[in-house]
Structures are given as C-alpha cells and as structure tokens.
C-alpha cells in the first residue's frame, strides 16, 4: 500500500489536470487492501483505462517476504507490457513507473519511443542511498566495525546503523532487487519525490544543484505532499469516536500497512498507552499480509484492557483511513514506523510524530522527522534484525513527551504550513508537476 497509494494519488492529480490515465497494475495482488483500493479507485474514476497484467510467479521459499517477491516478479515481468501498450489509443505520452521496476521499464519506454519518469515512494535521503548502493556493496569493508558512518560525497554523512541490515547481504532478495533498479535510475527523465523542501532542502539541493550522484540520478522532482483522493466509504466508528474527543488530545498509533508487532511488543504498547493517561486510537496488525491476519482484537489485548480503557481509547484491527485520521482536529500526536507516506501525511497537518522505525528506509526517514522538527526519535529503540522489546515505561515517557512539548507542536505546525503552501496553486510542488505536463504536451 505504501507503493500503490502514491500512484493512485498521482493518477488522480493527473486526472484533475485533464490527462488521460492508464493504470497498470500487477495481478494477482498480495494484500486484500491493494485489490479493494484498485477496484474502488477504478469505480470512482471510470474514465481511467485499466491494464491488469498477469505477472510471472518466481520460485520462492517460505521465508521470502511476499511483498518483495511481488516487486521482483513484477520487475521481471515488465517486458510483457510492450504489446499491451503499443496499440494504446490515444498513444501514451509518458510512463510513470515505480522505482522497483526501474531496470525493466527502460526497454518498454524505449520501444514505445516515449520518456519514462519514476515515482519514488521514499525520502530523498534514502533514494540517494539507493543510488549509492552499487558502490556501497562493492566494498564489503564499508561494513567493517571501523566505519560508523556512510559518507556519500556532498551529502551529510549518516550512521551506518541507519542502513537496512539486508544491504549487508548481497544475496538478500531486497538487496538484489534494489541493486538492479539502482543501476537504472539515471535512465529516467526524472524522479518524482513525495517530499517537502522544508524537510529535505539540503539533500534536494545537493542533488539538483550540486550534481551529487550525478552519474546515478536524473533530476529529482519534488511534488509533495501528494494531494489526497477521496474514496467514498462509510464513516468508520473510530471517526465518530474521534469526533467526540477534545482538540489535539488523541495519540494515534499505527505502523503502516505491512508491519506486524510481536505479541510481547503489543502488550508493552498497551501498558505505555494506558500509563500515559492520554486518549488513543491504536491500529493493530498481527500478520504482515492482511488476508492472514485473523486474530481477534480481544485475543490480542485481553478483555480487561479493553474494558479499563474504553473511555480513553479505541483499538482497531483492520484497515482505517489514515489520511482522514491525521487530518482530524482531535489527533495530537502520531506514533509511527515512519513509512514515508505516513511521514508526509503527518507533515500535511503538522501532527508531531514519535518515530519508531522498524525496517528498510524507516531509520533514515526517522532522522528526517527529527531534524525537520516534525517529531522525536529515540535511536536506542531497536529495529529489523536487532529488535529488542521496548518496554511500556519507555513508550509512556515518549508519549508524555510528545503530548507535553508545546515547542515541538509549534514546529510541527510550521511544517504543516510549509506543506500546504507547496501544494496550493502556484506552490513549489504544484509548479513542478505543471512544468512536466507542459513539457509532455509539447
Ligand atoms: N494506511 C491506511 N490505513 C491503514 C494502514 C495504512 O490508510 O490501516 C495507508 C497510510 O496512510 C499510507 C500507506 O497506507 O498512505 C502506508 O504507507 P507507509 O509508507 O506509511 O508504510 P508501509 O505500509 O509501506 O510500511
Ligand atoms: N523490510 C522493509 N520494509 C518493511 C518490511 C521489511 O524494508 O516494511 C525489509 C527489512 O529491511 C527486512 C527485510 O525487508 O530486513 C525482510 O523483512 P521481514 O519483515 O521479513 O524481516 P524480519 O523483521 O521479520 O526479520
């Protein structure tokens, strides 16, 4: 969903600017959330042409992450698209593709004689790390204990502990797929970034004005925060509950669409929330893929917790409309894994974040949140291969800190104002997209 959502948002931004849009999706999808969002998007935008193309399934083992397997299968199936697209009427004028297919989309766009742009679903900082990946991996000594930082010439160095552990293993599926794509980034006409000047000015400027990583990256095109698109669904009970809470009083807790917490960690979060005394809206997942997530809320949390906290909080299992939650005036803070979409959604309204990164790009994203004064981050909290239990008392402390910090609240609101300015007509992000569309029209 972290990849599909930005694509649907961009598709709807293009529709609003009178473009004809063909949406190409890989079939079958991994999660139920993906297929239901694709269906309702198409239902509400009947003018969109849909190409659902059957991807070739790869042999795999049980340990492989189903989402990464899907990325790799899609990457290897993209050549099948050419015949499906060559007879498009009206003919296509450009392809906007996910960076997970960067390596294979080039030959399709070349054959069609049209440019392709990539859409990045991560931060500028992490994209730079991806562009640098071939170099990083070519020298295993860079992972020696003597190195504590990753130094990409022209960029502020960052701790080696922030790079995803799979990068240390060139045979890891995640690393192999990204490496292939990394080598092809420069073939794109540009990369759309769902990012904000105020959060990533330094990195954006280093790449676009300083030529940092110039052999590996085309121009970066910041168009964040992406405009939201509306899905007309019934109002969730959690929204009616939010309506009844005082302004900025609720801590919203969610770790995105594919991150499940262990039973032990869920218990500690429940302690932290209860002890903090603050109101909360907590979205729980117990399996990575939603179709496998069958445990009931009361079996995860226990009846007594739910009973004790019924006047203070709401726990939800299943899909919620996160953008709607984050836009709600009752929400005062967001405990987040820092998936990049979540970060930018928090930035839109300036909701202060407690960063709790879990995998992949999320530690680099958390650093951006902290430096950009959108939130706080305790680097000692483990992640990925090094996931120590974070105890309830620590969680309580962080929640009290974020809810009590007036200065942070103000700073986060400032980020929200910047985000609004960027997206409005004539704003920096809106201009970038308009310029690309003007170019394509010529
Ligand atoms: N999301 C949502 N409801 C949920 C879980 C996720 O609306 O119950 C959305 C969230 O708003 C975001 C996307 O799904 O747009 C998740 O992307 P993100 O990059 O934050 O994290 P990921 O799920 O990829 O780890
Ligand atoms: N990963 C990621 N984002 C996610 C989930 C996983 O980037 O939302 C990466 C992460 O770096 C991890 C690898 O994919 O090492 C495999 O993920 P999985 O969750 O299977 O690993 P686990 O944490 O269970 O060892």
Automatic annotation (TrEMBL):
It comes from the Eukaryota. The keyword Nucleotide-binding does not apply. CDD domains: GT1_Gtf-like. GO terms for molecular function: UDP-glucosyltransferase activity. Pfam families: UDPGT. Keywords: Glycosyltransferase, Signal, Transferase. Residues 1-20 form the signal peptide. Its EC number is 2.4.1.-. PANTHER family: GLYCOSYLTRANSFERASE (PTHR48048), UDP-GLYCOSYLTRANSFERASE 708D1-LIKE (PTHR48048:SF76). Belongs to the UDP-glycosyltransferase family. This is Glycosyltransferase. It comes from Ficus carica (Common fig). The lineage of its organism: Eukaryota, Viridiplantae, Streptophyta, Embryophyta, Tracheophyta.
């Amino acid at each position: 969903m972290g990849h599909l959502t930005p694509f649907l948002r961009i598709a709807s931004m293009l529709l609003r600017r009178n473009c004809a849009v063909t949406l190409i999706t890989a079939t079958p999808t991994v999660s139920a959330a993906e297929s239901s969002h694709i269906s309702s998007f198409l239902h509400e935008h009947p003018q969109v042409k849909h190409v659902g193309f059957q991807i070739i399934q790869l042999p795999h083992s049980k340990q492989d992450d189903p989402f990464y397997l899907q990325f790799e299968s899609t990457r290897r199936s993209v050549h099948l698209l050419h015949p499906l697209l060559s007879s498009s009427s009206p003919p296509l004028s450009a392809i906007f593709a996910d960076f997970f297919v960067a390596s294979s989309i080039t030959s399709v766009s070349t054959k069609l004689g049209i440019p392709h742009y990539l859409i990045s679903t991560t931060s500028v900082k992490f994209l730079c790390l991806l562009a640098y990946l071939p170099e990083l991996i070519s020298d295993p000594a860079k992972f020696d204990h003597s190195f504590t930082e990753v130094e990409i010439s022209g960029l502020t160095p960052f701790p080696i502990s922030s790079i995803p552990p799979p990068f240390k293993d060139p045979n890891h599926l995640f690393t192999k797929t990204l490496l292939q794509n990394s080598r092809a980034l420069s073939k794109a006409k540009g990369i759309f970034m769902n990012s904000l000047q105020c959060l990533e000015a330094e990195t954006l400027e280093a790449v676009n004005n300083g030529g940092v990583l110039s052999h590996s990256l085309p121009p970066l095109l910041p168009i964040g925060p992406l405009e939201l698109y509306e899905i007309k669904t019934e109002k969730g009970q959690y929204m009616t509950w939010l309506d009844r809470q005082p302004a900025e009083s609720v801590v919203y807790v969610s770790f995105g669409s594919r991150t499940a917490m262990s039973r032990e960690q869920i218990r500690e979060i429940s302690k932290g929330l209860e002890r903090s005394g603050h109101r909360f809206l907590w979205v729980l997942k117990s399996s990575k893929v939603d179709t496998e997530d069958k445990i009931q809320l009361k079996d995860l949390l226990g009846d007594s917790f739910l009973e004790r906290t019924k006047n203070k909080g709401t726990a939800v299992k299943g899909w919620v409309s996160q953008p709607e939650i984050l836009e709600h005036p009752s929400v005062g803070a967001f405990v987040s894994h820092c998936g990049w979409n979540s970060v930018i959604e928090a930035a839109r309204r300036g909701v202060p974040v407690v960063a709790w990164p879990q995998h992949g790009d999320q530690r680099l994203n958390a650093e951006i949140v902290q430096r950009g004064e959108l939130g706080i981050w305790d680097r000692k909290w483990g992640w990925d291969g090094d996931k120590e239990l974070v105890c309830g008392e620590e969680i309580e402390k962080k929640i009290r800190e974020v809810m009590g910090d007036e200065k942070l609240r103000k700073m986060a609101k400032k980020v929200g104002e910047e985000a609004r300015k960027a997206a409005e007509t004539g704003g920096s992000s809106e201009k970038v997209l308009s310029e690309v569309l003007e170019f394509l029209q010529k």
